[in-house]
Amino acid sequence: MGVRIATKFPRSNCMPTPNRGMLLSLLVVTLQAAAADKGASEASSIDDLFGGPVTKTAPAATSPVTPAVTNPALPEMPLPDISPSSPVLDQAQQQSTSSLKLTGFYQNDLAYTYADKKHWSRFNNTLDLSTKGSTAGGVAWKLGGRLNYDPIYDLTDHYPSMVRDDQRFEAMIREAYVDMSAGDWEFRLGRQHIVWGEMVGLFFADVVSAKDLRQFVLPDFDMIRIPQWAARAEYFSGDFHAEAVWIPYMSYDDIGKPGAEFYPFNPPVSLDYGITKEEKPSGLDEAGYGLRLSWIQGGWDVSGFYYTANDALAAFSRQISPTLTYHPIHERIYQLGATLGKDLGPMVLKAETVFTRDKLFNTLDPLDADGLVRQNFLDYVVGLEWSFPQETRFNMQLFQRWFTNHDTGIVPDRIESGVSLLLSTQALHPRLEPELLLISSLNRADGLAQFKLTWKMDGNWRLAAGVDIFEGPADGLFGVYDDKDRAYTEVRYSF
User: Fold this and answer.
1) What is the count of structural domains for the chain?
2) Is position 66 within any domain?
3) 128 in a domain, yes or no?
4) Residues 214-266: pLDDT tens digits?
5) CA dist list (Å): 333 to 166, 227, 358, 403, 476
6) Residue 391 in contact with residue 428, Cβ under 8 Å?
7) pTM for this structure?
8) For residue 362, what is the domain's CATH number?
9) How many whole angstroms separate alpha carbon 268 and alpha carbon 346?
10) In this structure, is residue 458 part of a structural domain?
């Protein structure tokens, strides 16, 4: 599973403790049951346990055949029988506009936090459904939603009631948009995903998307990204692509409630303090907008963009009178960035750079009125990925943040550097993929180690188990969660 790097934060029983090896036993039982379903009474090889690799049978030699024109909405037939005036074609088109097909997935996530104050921390169940279609006038549409229910908040009393109310049950619209086209132009209106980033597991240039950070940056991309209500226009001409976005109603990063497992704010103060309800500005005056231009030239994929909106991630404004209180707020920032990618044979080069102006950071200066300072900084990252036989890949990325007007009261140094390493392979078995991700700050002993083992049972079922290990000082991006080390399992059925 890829890990996402978020903006640096300041530092922020239950079900019975499992017996030693309980999680491992559960996984073994699951694997044994799956093997039994395949009729294998005894696994004599790794193929018996995980299922043999998918084999392709070479087609018999035949005489050359003129290919027929195909359309997923039409029955296969010779080209002369489906001319534009054919009643067969008209009937097929009417059927395609009226028939709906649901796609999606169900996923269960189980996690046990073992580093400190051992407890079950997650038992989430997700149902994601979507459907799409088109009208006779050529307008395409898509509608999708997601339900989350985590009974951990009903079965334990580890978390405050406000966290329970926030994360126990959730229903949301994920996508609801229409697509139209006119010549070289394409238009999308509604709730949609807008992804501008190019890097593996990093969010530097992915400036438009909001994120669900209630599980930090540990889940997969499709679980973390929050869509935006936006109008998007795209222009295509050869190797040139232009994209303009306008977001009249902003979605913001979901950081949860104080007391949650990964709540990002825990100020280093000895006094009692309170945190008020998060302010999320809305309305046309608070709209976000941006422009992205992309070219492909000589194998180089290059893009540049400008984007401005209220910061999706909350900053915490301080008020001391009459008591110490923090207010989560969002104020406008401005971003200018670029990305590039190049296939170099067995190696792929990717890079991103983003300059951000007016982002708010908490300061340790007790004399500052609201505890916030505006900072300008440049993020840049360079990554190389090598591909090897048996679906083996190795990815390495170096990244830095350079503050152009560094305030000595903030936690980050003037230059913050980091590195990530990712190794995954299917060399053991085509259906079995171990993955190891290491990411660390080069300024301090702060990092995250993730190991994940994924078993792709068939085209629909996927099982996974792994561990997330945090390390570092209390003011580090990962060290703030030093007591949140956990083991977890994932089960997903896609349809």
Assistant:
1) 1
2) no
3) yes
4) 999 999 888 999 999 999 999 999 999 999 999 999 999 999 999 999 999 98
5) 28, 19, 5, 15, 24
6) no
7) 0.80
8) 2.40.160.10
9) 48
10) yes
